[in-house]
Amino acid sequence: MLKFKFLLWAFAQMLRRKIRSDASAARYVASKSLVFQIRTVSGAGRYFVIKDGTVRSSSGLAATPRFTLTFTSAAKGFEILSAKDAQAAFLRGVGSKDLTISGDFREVLWFQGLTAFLQPPKVVLPYDRTVF
Questions:
Q1: Which of 38, 59, 67, 125 is the most buried (most CB within 10 A)?
Q2: Which SS3 state, helix, strand or coil, does residue 53 take?
Q3: What CATH number corresponds to the domain at position 52?
């Protein structure tokens, strides 16, 4: 449970840092107003508020989130959120019912775009540029 809660807190810190340091990320959230939450079935979780180009997060659950990511357990939530192949892990989680997504799916897709800013840049090696 503690690892899951720490991961959610660290996620908010990473988003804040990226928005401050990356102009593209700052533009992406500039005009957005959104409240969403990531939680477990048992009620542990955190909600995130994106407003006026900033990200805030608080422990607990929001009264009226636009969407919610609900995990069956904190261990499953940590496993899916910290997976190296995040997109595939999300799809497996939804397929196995370890992850339930409720709310506005357009906002979920926007959120997926936001998390793409947290991915490390792809490095193209010189020999990968050849035609052979």
A1: 38
A2: coil
A3: 3.30.1050.10
